[in-house]
Amino acid sequence: MIKTLIFIPTYNEADNILILLEKIFKINENFKILIIDDDSPDGTANLIQERYPEEKVEVIVRKGKKGRGFAGIRGFKESLKYDFDRLVEMDGDLSHSPEFIPLLLKESENTDLVIGSRFIKGGKDKERGTIREFISFFARIYISMVLGLKIKDITSGFRVFKKQVIEKILPRLTADDPFIVAESLYWVKRYGFSIKEVPIYFYNRNKGVSKLNGKILFTYLFKVLKLGIKGRKTTISS
Fold this sequence. Notes:
Number of strands: 9
Oligomer: single chain
Shape: globular
Number of helices: 8
Low-confidence stretches: none
Helix content: 25-40%
Structural class: alpha/beta
């Protein structure tokens, strides 16, 4: 039986996280969940700790500078302390539906990294506005060209990693923001691990405010270029 650890980075997800955790445990009550919370002012961490024992859901509250990248790197580091075969990474805002976890895990039997994809046949990006679709489309093309990634959903944060993938790419990760998703994918490819996309439905966050804005997007695209240049100068040894 595959030993599974689910990693969820959170920041101000008090309106969503308990609903998400309930949905996950309905699929498999034996899942172990690791939450890395960026010291959410809305009390996300306290809500989880009041509802679930540490044996089921471990909550680590990060202090200091906040950022999706910092949380991601911390989550990967902490995950390696656990005995697991697969690490499921997903968002805490209900945009990633737990109903797809069994499918992603099944596909991971023969694949090193499985990506829950909105943009392959069978996948859907539900309720997204036209302007955001337009921005997302050109951002994906740009990232694909610069980083040489033949992946349809490069920015999907709904993924399943084999443990050895985390161990290999972790020392390469430096992003402090959402760019960590593309950065980690880039190094997975560079190390020659197998990658497969599986169709999912992506939902707009249920409640709360999206962290994406113009400044973050511009910074993200600049970091893509920087990583592409750095990557070309990096020699990968087996």
